């Protein structure tokens, strides 16, 4: 039984790694690398591909962050992790009413390139997105 469980864990980890689309910094377009270096000087990132965009994952000022870039180097958005209890009260009220008994795994503030702010709460396998005022916008499956 232990061997089966261990083998399942090994296979699952390889499958997860294959889906993650992680790649080396050298595979990131020069325009994206240059834009990241200008916006976050001295920061080292781990890179992923999210759809047709490039995602830099890094730490800055004690925060876990990501920055999402178009292939031409234009910044699409940044995401900064935050403590769940720091979400706006309207978000917490909505989550409590609509996701009864569910644990909020993570929370983040998303800042779009145009300055618009959204909040994200991860519940089960979904990201629940809210506007800057805490109004529900959508639910996205991870």
List keywords for this structure.
142 residues, alpha+beta, Nuclear Transport Factor 2, Chain: A, eight-stranded antiparallel beta sheet, 3 helices, 8 strands, elongated, disordered N terminus
Textual characterization of the structure:
The protein is an alpha+beta fold and 142 residues long. Helices cover 27% and strands 39% of the residues. An eight-stranded antiparallel β-sheet has the order 1-2-3-4-5-6-7-8, covered by helices on one side. A hairpin with a 4-residue loop joins β7 and β8. 15% of the residues are buried.
Question: For the terminal residues, how far apart are their CA atoms?
Answer: 31 Å
The CATH architecture classification is Roll
CA-based shape: elongated
Helix content: 25-40%
Radius of gyration: 17 Å
Count of individual helical segments: 3
Strand content: 35-45%
Structural class: alpha+beta
> Which parts are unreliable, with pLDDT below 50 for 5 consecutive residues or more?
1-20
Strand order of the biggest β-sheet: 1-2-3-4-5-6-7-8
CATH class: Alpha Beta
Please name the CATH topology: Nuclear Transport Factor 2, Chain: A
For the largest beta-sheet, the strand count, sense and barrel status come to: 8 strands, antiparallel
Which H/E pattern describes the elements? HHEEEEHEEEE
Mean pLDDT: 87
């Amino acid at each position: 039984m232990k061997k089966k469980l261990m083998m399942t864990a090994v296979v699952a980890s390889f499958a997860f790694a294959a889906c993650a689309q992680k790649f080396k910094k050298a595979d990131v377009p020069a325009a994206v690398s240059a834009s990241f270096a200008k916006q976050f000087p001295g920061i080292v990132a781990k890179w992923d591909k999210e759809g047709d965009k490039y995602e830099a994952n890094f730490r800055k000022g004690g925060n876990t962050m990501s920055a999402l870039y178009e292939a031409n180097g234009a910044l699409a958005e940044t995401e900064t992790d935050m403590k769940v209890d720091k979400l706006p009260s309207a978000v917490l009220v909505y989550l409590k009413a609509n996701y009864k008994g569910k644990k909020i795994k993570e929370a983040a503030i998303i800042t779009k390139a145009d300055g618009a702010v959204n909040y994200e709460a991860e519940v089960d396998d979904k990201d629940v997105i809210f506007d800057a005022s805490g109004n529900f916008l959508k639910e996205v499956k991870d």
